[in-house]
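Fig. S4 source data, part A: sequence.
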Amino acid sequence: MGNTPRRGDTRQRIQDVALELFAEQGYEKTSLREIAEHLEVTKAALYYHFKTKEDIVLSLFQDLGRPLDELIAWGEQQPRSLETKQELLRRYSAALDIAEPLMRFMQENQATVRELSIGQIFKNRMLAMSAMIRDPEAPMVDQVRSVIALFSMHARMFALQAIEGTPEDKRDAALEVALDLVEQAHASSTHG
């Protein structure tokens, strides 16, 4: 990704630079003043958009998480078929591309995430997603398959570092594994 801003406006440039600094030196050690200096804006200009670092993080959760919220809203309107679950996983994989910087932030700043209410937002999103993919009537092993299908897609960012290959290849492979798991869960619960 490098230093190219996602989109041009100041609010988003602040988010991008803040995320970069949080990633480099940690949330706690980054000050609003430093963020302003990196952007070459005054602290007042920064303050116009965000009063605190927490405001920046919350805004990121809302903006980068919006595709997830839209996906959940879509999924809740759909029949609970295998096709829906597969489509949910495909769309989730794409939404994670957008949310990836956020996932890294959460991974690297776990204490902060717990303190900042964002942990709860994230947990609620995950619960909503797994509720749509998991069949509560299914045998436990199939419920576990379904939940792991979801989390296998997070693994591509962290757990798959030891595997050779491009991020795209890992993303596709993780999605394939997720689709397999959901299909297995579905097959065994319909024939059982």
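Fig. S4 source data, part B ends here. Residues 58 and 118 are 7 Å apart (CA to CA).
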